[in-house]
Amino acid sequence: MKKDIVYSLVAKELRRQKEMIGLIPSENTVSPEVSRVLSSCLSNKYSEGYAGRRYYEGNQVIDQIEFLAMDRIKKLFAVPYVNIQPYSGSPANFAIYFALMQPGDTLMGLKLSMGGHLTHGHPKVTGSGRFYNSVQYGVKKNARIDFAEVEALAKKHKPKVIVAGNTAYPFELDFKKFRKIVDMVGAWLVADISHVTGLVVAGEHMSPVPYADVIMSTTHKTFRGPRGAMIIVTDRGMKRDPELGKKIDSAIIPGLQGGPHNATTAAIAIAAGEASTAKFKKYAQQIRKNATVLADRLMKNGISLVGNGTETHLMVIDLTKYGPGLGTQAAFAMDVAGIYANRNTVPDEQGSPFYPSGIRIGTPLVTSRGMKEREMKKIADWIAEVILHVKNQPLPDDKKERAVFLKEFRKNALKDPVLKKIRREVRALTAGFPLFQS
Ligand code: DSN
After folding, report:
1. Does residue 337 carry a pLDDT above 80?
2. Which atom of ligand 1 is nearest to the CA of 195?
3. How many CA atoms does the CB half-sphere of 207 hold within 13 Å?
4. Which of 94, 194, 315, 359 has the most ligand 1 atoms within 8 A of CB, as the residue to mutate?
5. In 3D, which of 291, 234, 196, 197 has the Cα closest to residue 96?
6. What is the percentage of the chain residues whose pLDDT exceeds 70?
7. Euclidean distance between CA atoms 306 and 107, whole angstroms
8. For residue 90, which atom of ligand 1 is closest to its CA?
Protein backbone atom coordinates (compact mmCIF):
# COMPACT_ATOMS: atom_id res chain seq x y z
CA MET A 1 0.00 0.00 0.00
CA LYS A 2 1.24 3.49 -0.82
CA LYS A 3 2.43 5.39 2.26
CA ASP A 4 0.15 8.26 3.19
CA ILE A 5 1.73 11.60 2.27
CA VAL A 6 0.90 12.90 5.76
CA TYR A 7 3.82 10.89 7.17
CA SER A 8 6.29 12.53 4.85
CA LEU A 9 4.87 15.95 5.73
CA VAL A 10 5.33 15.21 9.43
CA ALA A 11 8.91 14.08 8.73
CA LYS A 12 9.48 17.30 6.78
CA GLU A 13 8.18 19.39 9.69
CA LEU A 14 10.37 17.46 12.13
CA ARG A 15 13.40 18.23 9.98
CA ARG A 16 12.42 21.90 9.83
CA GLN A 17 12.15 22.09 13.61
CA LYS A 18 15.45 20.26 14.11
CA GLU A 19 17.41 22.37 11.67
CA MET A 20 16.03 25.76 12.61
CA ILE A 21 16.20 27.95 15.68
CA GLY A 22 12.70 28.43 17.13
CA LEU A 23 12.31 31.74 18.92
CA ILE A 24 8.52 32.09 19.09
CA PRO A 25 8.13 32.68 22.84
CA SER A 26 4.86 30.78 23.13
CA GLU A 27 6.35 27.66 21.55
CA ASN A 28 8.45 24.97 23.16
CA THR A 29 9.50 21.40 22.60
CA VAL A 30 8.12 18.79 24.98
CA SER A 31 10.00 15.99 26.69
CA PRO A 32 9.88 12.52 25.05
CA GLU A 33 7.74 11.41 28.02
CA VAL A 34 5.08 14.07 27.36
CA SER A 35 5.22 13.26 23.66
CA ARG A 36 4.74 9.54 24.33
CA VAL A 37 1.49 9.84 26.30
CA LEU A 38 0.12 12.34 23.79
CA SER A 39 0.06 9.66 21.11
CA SER A 40 -1.31 6.92 23.39
CA CYS A 41 -4.57 4.94 23.57
CA LEU A 42 -6.00 7.66 25.81
CA SER A 43 -7.15 9.49 22.68
CA ASN A 44 -9.63 6.66 22.03
CA LYS A 45 -11.75 7.44 25.07
CA TYR A 46 -14.70 9.75 25.71
CA SER A 47 -15.08 10.99 29.30
CA GLU A 48 -17.69 13.74 29.42
CA GLY A 49 -18.09 14.97 32.97
CA TYR A 50 -15.44 15.03 35.68
CA ALA A 51 -13.35 12.37 37.42
CA GLY A 52 -15.70 10.26 39.55
CA ARG A 53 -18.84 11.63 37.86
CA ARG A 54 -18.87 10.79 34.15
CA TYR A 55 -21.64 10.41 31.61
CA TYR A 56 -19.81 7.51 29.90
CA GLU A 57 -18.74 4.09 31.17
CA GLY A 58 -15.21 2.71 31.03
CA ASN A 59 -13.51 5.64 32.71
CA GLN A 60 -12.00 3.82 35.71
CA VAL A 61 -8.41 4.49 34.56
CA ILE A 62 -9.11 7.88 33.00
CA ASP A 63 -10.53 9.01 36.37
CA GLN A 64 -7.27 8.06 38.09
CA ILE A 65 -5.27 9.99 35.50
CA GLU A 66 -7.43 13.10 35.83
CA PHE A 67 -7.28 13.00 39.65
CA LEU A 68 -3.50 12.63 39.44
CA ALA A 69 -3.12 15.56 37.07
CA MET A 70 -5.30 17.76 39.29
CA ASP A 71 -3.47 16.73 42.47
CA ARG A 72 -0.09 17.49 40.94
CA ILE A 73 -1.18 20.94 39.74
CA LYS A 74 -2.80 21.74 43.11
CA LYS A 75 0.42 20.77 44.92
CA LEU A 76 2.66 22.64 42.48
CA PHE A 77 0.79 25.92 42.96
CA ALA A 78 -0.47 25.26 46.51
CA VAL A 79 -4.07 25.97 45.47
CA PRO A 80 -7.39 24.37 46.43
CA TYR A 81 -9.12 24.00 43.04
CA VAL A 82 -8.16 23.29 39.46
CA ASN A 83 -9.84 22.36 36.22
CA ILE A 84 -7.47 20.85 33.66
CA GLN A 85 -10.05 20.20 30.92
CA PRO A 86 -9.94 23.42 28.82
CA TYR A 87 -8.88 22.66 25.26
CA SER A 88 -6.62 25.70 25.20
CA GLY A 89 -6.12 29.21 26.57
CA SER A 90 -8.80 31.02 24.60
CA PRO A 91 -11.72 28.75 25.62
CA ALA A 92 -10.34 28.71 29.16
CA ASN A 93 -10.47 32.50 29.40
CA PHE A 94 -13.97 32.42 27.97
CA ALA A 95 -15.04 29.85 30.57
CA ILE A 96 -13.79 32.14 33.33
CA TYR A 97 -15.79 35.07 31.93
CA PHE A 98 -18.80 32.79 31.52
CA ALA A 99 -18.55 31.88 35.21
CA LEU A 100 -17.92 35.38 36.53
CA MET A 101 -19.89 37.72 34.26
CA GLN A 102 -23.13 38.24 32.42
CA PRO A 103 -23.12 39.46 28.80
CA GLY A 104 -22.74 43.24 28.84
CA ASP A 105 -20.69 43.33 32.04
CA THR A 106 -17.41 45.21 31.90
CA LEU A 107 -14.11 43.43 31.26
CA MET A 108 -10.73 45.15 31.50
CA GLY A 109 -7.54 43.89 29.87
CA LEU A 110 -4.28 45.00 28.29
CA LYS A 111 -4.51 46.28 24.70
CA LEU A 112 -3.47 43.69 22.13
CA SER A 113 -1.18 46.17 20.37
CA MET A 114 0.65 46.77 23.65
CA GLY A 115 1.20 43.12 24.53
CA GLY A 116 -2.26 41.86 25.58
CA HIS A 117 -4.25 38.96 24.10
CA LEU A 118 -7.27 38.73 21.81
CA THR A 119 -9.32 37.12 24.60
CA HIS A 120 -8.60 39.95 27.03
CA GLY A 121 -11.37 42.04 25.46
CA HIS A 122 -9.92 42.99 22.07
CA PRO A 123 -12.83 45.01 20.63
CA LYS A 124 -15.14 44.32 17.68
CA VAL A 125 -13.68 41.09 16.26
CA THR A 126 -13.46 38.82 19.33
CA GLY A 127 -16.06 37.19 21.52
CA SER A 128 -14.53 38.80 24.61
CA GLY A 129 -14.83 42.21 22.97
CA ARG A 130 -18.36 41.69 21.67
CA PHE A 131 -20.19 39.91 24.49
CA TYR A 132 -18.69 42.11 27.19
CA ASN A 133 -18.22 45.84 27.55
CA SER A 134 -14.50 45.90 26.94
CA VAL A 135 -12.26 48.57 28.45
CA GLN A 136 -8.57 48.37 27.58
CA TYR A 137 -5.56 49.71 29.44
CA GLY A 138 -2.11 50.32 27.99
CA VAL A 139 1.55 50.80 28.72
CA LYS A 140 3.58 53.93 29.42
CA LYS A 141 6.38 55.37 27.26
CA ASN A 142 8.80 52.98 29.02
CA ALA A 143 6.61 50.05 27.85
CA ARG A 144 5.54 49.15 31.41
CA ILE A 145 1.89 48.84 32.40
CA ASP A 146 0.37 52.21 33.22
CA PHE A 147 -1.11 51.46 36.65
CA ALA A 148 -2.37 55.05 37.01
CA GLU A 149 -4.46 54.42 33.88
CA VAL A 150 -5.59 50.99 35.15
CA GLU A 151 -6.79 52.63 38.38
CA ALA A 152 -8.51 55.55 36.65
CA LEU A 153 -10.29 53.27 34.15
CA ALA A 154 -11.30 50.83 36.88
CA LYS A 155 -12.80 53.59 39.01
CA LYS A 156 -14.64 55.04 36.02
CA HIS A 157 -15.97 51.83 34.45
CA LYS A 158 -16.34 49.56 37.53
CA PRO A 159 -15.34 46.34 35.71
CA LYS A 160 -16.55 42.98 36.91
CA VAL A 161 -13.28 41.37 35.83
CA ILE A 162 -9.78 42.76 35.44
CA VAL A 163 -7.34 40.54 33.56
CA ALA A 164 -3.66 40.75 34.42
CA GLY A 165 -2.03 38.92 31.56
CA ASN A 166 -0.10 39.30 28.34
CA THR A 167 1.46 37.69 25.33
CA ALA A 168 4.07 40.21 24.25
CA TYR A 169 5.03 42.06 27.43
CA PRO A 170 8.70 41.68 28.36
CA PHE A 171 8.41 42.65 32.03
CA GLU A 172 7.26 40.94 35.20
CA LEU A 173 3.55 41.38 35.90
CA ASP A 174 2.97 43.03 39.25
CA PHE A 175 -0.08 41.15 40.56
CA LYS A 176 0.12 42.97 43.89
CA LYS A 177 -0.53 46.31 42.19
CA PHE A 178 -3.45 44.82 40.25
CA ARG A 179 -4.93 43.46 43.48
CA LYS A 180 -4.87 46.88 45.10
CA ILE A 181 -6.87 48.34 42.21
CA VAL A 182 -9.23 45.36 41.99
CA ASP A 183 -10.06 45.79 45.67
CA MET A 184 -10.87 49.47 45.17
CA VAL A 185 -13.68 48.60 42.76
CA GLY A 186 -14.76 45.13 43.93
CA ALA A 187 -13.76 43.37 40.69
CA TRP A 188 -12.46 39.82 40.22
CA LEU A 189 -8.75 39.53 39.46
CA VAL A 190 -8.02 37.00 36.74
CA ALA A 191 -4.33 36.31 36.10
CA ASP A 192 -3.52 34.89 32.68
CA ILE A 193 -0.02 33.53 33.21
CA SER A 194 0.08 31.37 30.08
CA HIS A 195 3.45 32.75 29.00
CA VAL A 196 5.22 32.62 32.35
CA THR A 197 3.80 29.58 34.19
CA GLY A 198 7.11 27.73 34.05
CA LEU A 199 8.85 30.78 35.46
CA VAL A 200 6.21 31.14 38.19
CA VAL A 201 6.51 27.54 39.43
CA ALA A 202 10.29 27.88 39.46
CA GLY A 203 10.18 31.13 41.45
CA GLU A 204 11.53 33.12 38.49
CA HIS A 205 8.43 35.35 38.22
CA MET A 206 6.10 36.80 40.84
CA SER A 207 3.37 34.29 41.66
CA PRO A 208 -0.25 35.39 41.22
CA VAL A 209 -1.46 32.83 43.76
CA PRO A 210 -1.65 35.20 46.77
CA TYR A 211 -3.30 37.98 44.74
CA ALA A 212 -5.57 36.61 42.01
CA ASP A 213 -9.01 35.05 42.45
CA VAL A 214 -8.68 32.93 39.34
CA ILE A 215 -5.60 31.94 37.35
CA MET A 216 -5.58 30.70 33.78
CA SER A 217 -2.63 29.16 32.06
CA THR A 218 -1.95 27.22 28.95
CA THR A 219 0.08 24.10 29.63
CA HIS A 220 2.61 24.37 26.80
CA LYS A 221 4.80 27.51 26.55
CA THR A 222 7.28 27.80 29.47
CA PHE A 223 5.49 24.94 31.29
CA ARG A 224 6.71 22.52 28.58
CA GLY A 225 3.57 20.39 28.61
CA PRO A 226 1.00 19.55 25.93
CA ARG A 227 -1.21 22.05 24.10
CA GLY A 228 -3.95 22.57 26.65
CA ALA A 229 -4.93 24.81 29.55
CA MET A 230 -5.88 24.88 33.21
CA ILE A 231 -8.01 27.11 35.37
CA ILE A 232 -7.03 27.51 39.01
CA VAL A 233 -9.22 28.97 41.74
CA THR A 234 -7.09 30.33 44.58
CA ASP A 235 -7.87 30.29 48.31
CA ARG A 236 -8.82 33.92 47.95
CA GLY A 237 -11.25 33.12 45.12
CA MET A 238 -12.81 30.18 46.98
CA LYS A 239 -13.19 32.27 50.12
CA ARG A 240 -14.97 35.00 48.21
CA ASP A 241 -17.30 32.49 46.53
CA PRO A 242 -17.18 28.88 47.80
CA GLU A 243 -19.12 27.85 44.68
CA LEU A 244 -16.54 29.36 42.31
CA GLY A 245 -14.81 26.07 41.51
CA LYS A 246 -18.13 24.48 40.63
CA LYS A 247 -19.08 27.48 38.51
CA ILE A 248 -15.83 27.15 36.54
CA ASP A 249 -16.45 23.42 36.07
CA SER A 250 -19.98 24.08 34.77
CA ALA A 251 -18.68 26.80 32.45
CA ILE A 252 -16.33 24.26 30.86
CA ILE A 253 -18.91 21.47 30.59
CA PRO A 254 -21.80 21.83 29.80
CA GLY A 255 -21.08 25.54 29.20
CA LEU A 256 -18.52 25.45 26.43
CA GLN A 257 -16.96 22.04 25.87
CA GLY A 258 -17.70 18.36 25.52
CA GLY A 259 -15.37 15.53 26.49
CA PRO A 260 -11.87 16.32 27.74
CA HIS A 261 -8.83 15.28 25.71
CA ASN A 262 -7.54 12.51 27.93
CA ALA A 263 -4.10 12.15 26.34
CA THR A 264 -3.60 15.84 27.06
CA THR A 265 -4.70 15.31 30.66
CA ALA A 266 -2.07 12.58 31.10
CA ALA A 267 0.56 14.76 29.45
CA ILE A 268 -0.32 17.60 31.85
CA ALA A 269 0.24 15.16 34.74
CA ILE A 270 3.66 14.24 33.33
CA ALA A 271 4.57 17.91 32.74
CA ALA A 272 3.48 18.82 36.28
CA GLY A 273 5.73 16.07 37.62
CA GLU A 274 8.63 17.41 35.54
CA ALA A 275 7.94 20.99 36.66
CA SER A 276 8.24 20.01 40.32
CA THR A 277 11.89 18.95 40.00
CA ALA A 278 15.12 20.82 40.78
CA LYS A 279 16.08 20.25 37.14
CA PHE A 280 13.07 22.29 36.00
CA LYS A 281 14.01 25.12 38.36
CA LYS A 282 17.42 25.26 36.70
CA TYR A 283 15.76 25.15 33.30
CA ALA A 284 13.53 28.14 34.13
CA GLN A 285 16.53 30.07 35.45
CA GLN A 286 18.36 29.35 32.21
CA ILE A 287 15.38 30.56 30.13
CA ARG A 288 15.67 33.94 31.83
CA LYS A 289 19.47 34.04 31.70
CA ASN A 290 19.32 33.24 27.99
CA ALA A 291 16.73 35.95 27.38
CA THR A 292 18.85 38.55 29.19
CA VAL A 293 21.97 37.64 27.22
CA LEU A 294 20.04 37.63 23.94
CA ALA A 295 18.55 41.05 24.72
CA ASP A 296 21.84 42.60 25.81
CA ARG A 297 23.70 41.33 22.76
CA LEU A 298 20.98 42.51 20.37
CA MET A 299 21.13 45.99 21.86
CA LYS A 300 24.95 45.93 21.70
CA ASN A 301 24.52 45.23 17.98
CA GLY A 302 22.36 48.37 17.65
CA ILE A 303 18.99 46.58 17.62
CA SER A 304 16.29 48.37 19.66
CA LEU A 305 14.01 46.50 22.03
CA VAL A 306 10.63 47.56 23.39
CA GLY A 307 11.33 48.76 26.95
CA ASN A 308 15.08 48.26 26.37
CA GLY A 309 15.21 44.69 27.57
CA THR A 310 13.44 41.87 29.30
CA GLU A 311 12.68 40.50 32.75
CA THR A 312 11.12 37.31 31.44
CA HIS A 313 11.56 34.80 28.61
CA LEU A 314 10.61 37.20 25.83
CA MET A 315 11.42 40.49 24.19
CA VAL A 316 10.06 42.52 21.29
CA ILE A 317 12.47 43.90 18.71
CA ASP A 318 11.41 47.44 17.76
CA LEU A 319 12.15 48.24 14.12
CA THR A 320 10.29 51.58 14.07
CA LYS A 321 13.51 53.54 13.53
CA TYR A 322 13.83 51.93 10.08
CA GLY A 323 10.33 53.08 9.05
CA PRO A 324 6.92 51.55 9.86
CA GLY A 325 6.06 47.98 9.02
CA LEU A 326 9.50 46.36 8.63
CA GLY A 327 8.46 43.44 10.88
CA THR A 328 7.09 41.45 7.93
CA GLN A 329 10.27 41.64 5.86
CA ALA A 330 12.59 41.12 8.83
CA ALA A 331 10.68 38.06 10.14
CA PHE A 332 10.60 36.55 6.64
CA ALA A 333 14.33 37.14 6.14
CA MET A 334 15.07 35.61 9.56
CA ASP A 335 13.04 32.56 8.58
CA VAL A 336 15.04 32.19 5.37
CA ALA A 337 18.19 32.47 7.50
CA GLY A 338 16.97 29.58 9.68
CA ILE A 339 15.60 31.53 12.66
CA TYR A 340 11.83 31.69 13.04
CA ALA A 341 9.91 34.21 15.12
CA ASN A 342 6.70 36.16 14.71
CA ARG A 343 6.12 39.70 13.60
CA ASN A 344 4.41 41.73 16.30
CA THR A 345 3.05 45.17 17.01
CA VAL A 346 5.04 47.54 19.20
CA PRO A 347 3.48 50.10 21.58
CA ASP A 348 2.34 53.16 19.59
CA GLU A 349 2.60 51.11 16.41
CA GLN A 350 3.22 53.22 13.28
CA GLY A 351 2.49 50.32 10.93
CA SER A 352 -0.57 48.07 11.18
CA PRO A 353 -1.45 44.82 13.00
CA PHE A 354 -0.83 42.84 9.79
CA TYR A 355 2.31 44.80 8.83
CA PRO A 356 3.72 45.73 12.22
CA SER A 357 7.08 47.20 13.20
CA GLY A 358 8.22 44.57 15.67
CA ILE A 359 9.38 40.98 16.02
CA ARG A 360 8.64 38.98 19.16
CA ILE A 361 11.29 36.50 20.26
CA GLY A 362 11.83 34.31 23.32
CA THR A 363 14.01 31.57 24.73
CA PRO A 364 11.89 28.63 26.06
CA LEU A 365 12.44 26.36 23.06
CA VAL A 366 16.14 26.96 22.55
CA THR A 367 16.68 26.47 26.29
CA SER A 368 14.84 23.12 26.12
CA ARG A 369 17.35 22.14 23.43
CA GLY A 370 20.19 22.86 25.85
CA MET A 371 21.42 26.15 24.39
CA LYS A 372 23.07 28.57 26.77
CA GLU A 373 24.67 32.02 26.87
CA ARG A 374 27.27 31.27 24.18
CA GLU A 375 24.60 30.23 21.69
CA MET A 376 22.41 33.25 22.60
CA LYS A 377 25.23 35.61 21.60
CA LYS A 378 25.58 33.85 18.24
CA ILE A 379 21.82 33.97 17.66
CA ALA A 380 21.72 37.69 18.53
CA ASP A 381 24.56 38.36 16.08
CA TRP A 382 22.73 36.48 13.32
CA ILE A 383 19.45 38.31 13.97
CA ALA A 384 21.25 41.65 13.92
CA GLU A 385 23.00 40.73 10.68
CA VAL A 386 19.67 39.86 9.05
CA ILE A 387 17.91 43.01 10.27
CA LEU A 388 20.72 45.32 9.19
CA HIS A 389 20.76 43.52 5.85
CA VAL A 390 17.06 44.23 5.11
CA LYS A 391 16.55 47.47 7.03
CA ASN A 392 16.60 49.65 3.92
CA GLN A 393 13.66 47.89 2.31
CA PRO A 394 10.60 49.46 3.98
CA LEU A 395 7.06 48.61 2.99
CA PRO A 396 5.43 50.95 0.43
CA ASP A 397 2.39 52.88 1.70
CA ASP A 398 0.27 52.06 -1.33
CA LYS A 399 -1.62 48.76 -0.91
CA LYS A 400 -1.17 47.56 -4.51
CA GLU A 401 2.52 48.45 -4.56
CA ARG A 402 2.88 46.64 -1.26
CA ALA A 403 1.73 43.29 -2.62
CA VAL A 404 4.11 43.52 -5.59
CA PHE A 405 6.96 44.67 -3.33
CA LEU A 406 6.47 41.81 -0.88
CA LYS A 407 6.32 39.21 -3.63
CA GLU A 408 9.59 40.51 -5.03
CA PHE A 409 11.14 40.82 -1.56
CA ARG A 410 10.32 37.20 -0.75
CA LYS A 411 11.60 35.94 -4.10
CA ASN A 412 14.90 37.76 -3.62
CA ALA A 413 15.26 36.74 0.03
CA LEU A 414 15.03 33.05 -0.87
CA LYS A 415 18.16 33.33 -3.01
CA ASP A 416 19.98 35.95 -0.95
CA PRO A 417 23.59 34.78 -0.33
CA VAL A 418 23.85 36.49 3.10
CA LEU A 419 20.71 34.76 4.37
CA LYS A 420 21.81 31.45 2.85
CA LYS A 421 25.21 31.72 4.58
CA ILE A 422 23.54 32.31 7.97
CA ARG A 423 21.20 29.39 7.34
CA ARG A 424 24.18 27.09 6.85
CA GLU A 425 25.75 28.35 10.08
CA VAL A 426 22.43 27.90 11.93
CA ARG A 427 22.15 24.33 10.65
CA ALA A 428 25.65 23.55 11.91
CA LEU A 429 24.71 24.88 15.36
CA THR A 430 21.34 23.17 15.70
CA ALA A 431 22.85 19.78 14.76
CA GLY A 432 24.45 19.76 18.24
CA PHE A 433 21.21 20.40 20.15
CA PRO A 434 18.61 17.58 19.95
CA LEU A 435 15.00 18.70 19.65
CA PHE A 436 13.54 16.22 22.15
CA GLN A 437 15.21 16.13 25.55
CA SER A 438 13.97 14.95 28.94
N1 DSN B 1 -0.76 32.41 20.47
C2 DSN B 1 -0.21 32.64 21.77
C3 DSN B 1 1.06 33.41 21.70
O4 DSN B 1 1.74 33.29 20.71
O5 DSN B 1 1.39 34.14 22.62
C6 DSN B 1 -1.19 33.25 22.68
O7 DSN B 1 -2.41 32.65 22.51
Report:
1. yes
2. 5
3. 12
4. 194
5. 234
6. 100
7. 26
8. 7
For residue 157, the one-letter residue type is H
For residue 364, say if its preceding peptide bond is cis, omega within 30 degrees of 0.
no
What are φ and ψ of residue 124, in 5° steps?
Answer: 65, -55
Nearest to 265 by CA among 17, 22, 96, 63: 63
Domains, the chain, in order of start with CATH, read: 47-275 (3.40.640.10), 281-430 (3.90.1150.10)
**Cβ–ligand 1 contact at 222 (below 6 Å):** no
Active site residues: 46, 48, 192, 218, 221, 227
- Name which residue sits closest to atom 2 of ligand 1, judged by CA: 26
Instruction: Report which secondary-structure segment, H or E, holds 150.
Output: helix 147-157
Residue 2: pLDDT above 80? no
Residue 342 alpha carbon, nearest atom of ligand 1: 4
pLDDT tens for 16-70 read 999 999 999 999 999 999 999 999 999 999 999 999 999 999 999 999 999 999 9
Residue 83 beta carbon below 6 angstroms from any ligand 1 atom: no
Task: Check pocket membership of 26 for ligand 1, CB cut-off 6 A.
Answer: yes
Whole-Å CA distances, 175 to 122, 205, 436: 21, 11, 34
